[in-house]
Amino acid sequence: MSSEPHIFFSDVNERQGSFLRRTMLMGGATALGGLALVGRLAHLQLFKSEEFATLATRNQFNFRQVPPPRGLIKDRNGVVIAGNRPSFRVLVVRDETKDLDQTLDLLGQLLPDTLERRRTIIREVNAAPRFSPVPVKSDLTWEEFSKVNLHAAELPGVMADMNEARYYPHGGAYAHVVGYVAKVSDRDVQAIRDKGEQPPSILFNPGFRIGRQGIERSLDLDLRGVEGGRKVEVNARGRVVAEDIAGSRPAVQGSEVVLTLDNDIQQRALEVFGEEAGSIVVMDVRNGDILAMVSAPSFDPNLFVSGVPGPIYRAWADYERRPLLDKALTGVFAPGSTFKPVTGLAALAKGIDPNRRITCTGGFYLGRRFACHATHGPQDMRDAIKNSCNVYFMTVATEIGPDAIADVARNMGFGQTFDIGIGGQKPGLVPDREWRRRNPVRGDANWYPGETPSYAIGQGALTVNALQLAVYTSRLANGRQAVMPRLIKSVGGVEQPPSGDLRELPYPPELLAVLRDGMNRVTDVGGTGFRNSQLGLGAVRMAGKTGTAQARNYGSGSRKSAGRPWAEKDHNLFIAYAPIDDPRYAVAVIVQHGGMGGGTAGAPRAREVMKVALLKDPEIRRRIEQAGFAETEDPGAHEAGVLEDAASDTTPAAAAEAPLITPAEAPGTPEAPQ
């Protein structure tokens, strides 16, 4: 029995109908999709073409910031003291490296010193914006620069180029007053945000530097300039393939700053310190221009531009003579006997006759004995300044009281800061009865008579800095005007006036003339500063006042410097002006822990610096030449002989300076500047 196939046409028709329905649906969906796609393409082509063309251009071209060259800083004669120089450097772009660690390993083989900074480099590279080149090392030698370029193919993301780096051609001579630049830190950015301002984008450029101290910091915005931009063409990976010169914007250099400083005087001021610590300030007594302001020892600010190596910075920070501290503005010291003319002026203002004679028997008695360094016999005010007699000034001080002394001290420039373009100044302290009420000792707010004798001779709670001493000396020498110090001569070609209004001193000129007469005698035969203050310029002479300030309490022991550690020696001070008959320049010198006698360490240094100032003055030099005078000795040889034995000088003139004060007589004896 054979079987025959069974065909059900009804099933076929159902399947065919179902297939046709699905085909029509899919075809319709495809047609709708095609229409939508065509519509979208038409919309993009007809209506969005301009917008997308702009976006495409932005993907192809972008701007990369170019830090501007920093403005130059010059001295009064046009000598560049902070400039820019070419520098080869190597950079890393994180987004162009396949493996950052491997790239740094290869780079370390070419530049071994980068291995020491590896962690810092990785941190900086990871923190940088995308495709931003991060400097890894600056100031490459030509050999190092060539090596990096030779192996460029093996170092993806590494490039070497030349840029302008900040440069301080005179090294440490201007380190404190001009300051330095360094990398922008998170604290810099946060400080701007704390003011409610938006940090400028240039701060995030890894190659940008910001002012850190001195003029570099205070005039940072003027010195920065305006950043430029390179319009570069990039590929899909963001790598630069070309630059659109026409679309780039050049950077604008910062404003030029001219200071009142004189390079020759500034350099000499640092030289004369040698290994000693302290500060020197030189001022023009006629207009307040600061011609030199030095703190010693100093440091090389060039090291901060690319980053100070850790061991070097630690050595600076740990050195007891503190090279990083600006001793001219932030170091405060007791002024010692340089303060005695203030006490004298206060006495004159209260009506005390300068010709009145007070007999010095070697000690002043007020409940207890306050020692003088010699028995001077009868002294008028001029003789008392010449001989630095403690008894005379202690006597008149107890008659007029501390408030009268404090008023004169403030009028002469103490207890205040000056707007010279540098912040961080310490005003020091001018004590009086009101100050004691605000600062009681163990609950006792009374000023006791026993505090006044020490105050009269520049000890006790009184502290000053070198700039204040220079201002005080300038006002004494000027005799009429309360000259104000000026450091910034011009910014961007615009002359800068002195800070504050020029006013007359509230004292008759004849009173100040008495003090100057006494200071003239200090540097004359028999004066405490005679031996080491002679300029050797004929009739052009220097007047001054010596000073020695205790750095610690000695008890009943000797204050002699011989054999004592450096930190236990007294501070040595000297103030002066010249010429005597027509004052033009004032100088203040503080030798930190320089030993006994302001005439031994301070005076010879003041002399050498003053000679440079005087010989650079055309009128004074002409006066010397017209008198037919020529120096008869080698100033350098004279200086060497004096400075070598300065700390051990035991001549009567030197020994006549140091006031012997017991701990009970010197409350609040200051320590070394902090």
UniProtKB/TrEMBL annotation:
Its EC number is 3.4.16.4. NCBIfam families: pbp2_mrdA. This is Penicillin-binding protein 2. InterPro entries: Beta-lactam/transpept, Beta-lactam/transpept-like, PBP_dimer, PBP_dimer_sf, PCN-bd_Tpept, Penicillin-binding_protein_2. It is a single-pass membrane protein. Residues 644-674 have a biased composition (Low complexity). It comes from Brevundimonas guildfordensis. Residues 278-611 form the Penicillin-binding protein transpeptidase domain. One of its GO terms (molecular function) is serine-type D-Ala-D-Ala carboxypeptidase activity. It is an enzyme of class 3 (hydrolase). Keywords: Carboxypeptidase, Cell inner membrane, Cell membrane, Cell shape, Cell wall biogenesis/degradation, Hydrolase, Membrane, Peptidoglycan synthesis, Protease, Transmembrane, Transmembrane helix. Residues 66-243 form the Penicillin-binding protein dimerisation domain. It is found in: Cell membrane; Membrane. Residues 628-674 are annotated as: Disordered. Its main location: membrane.
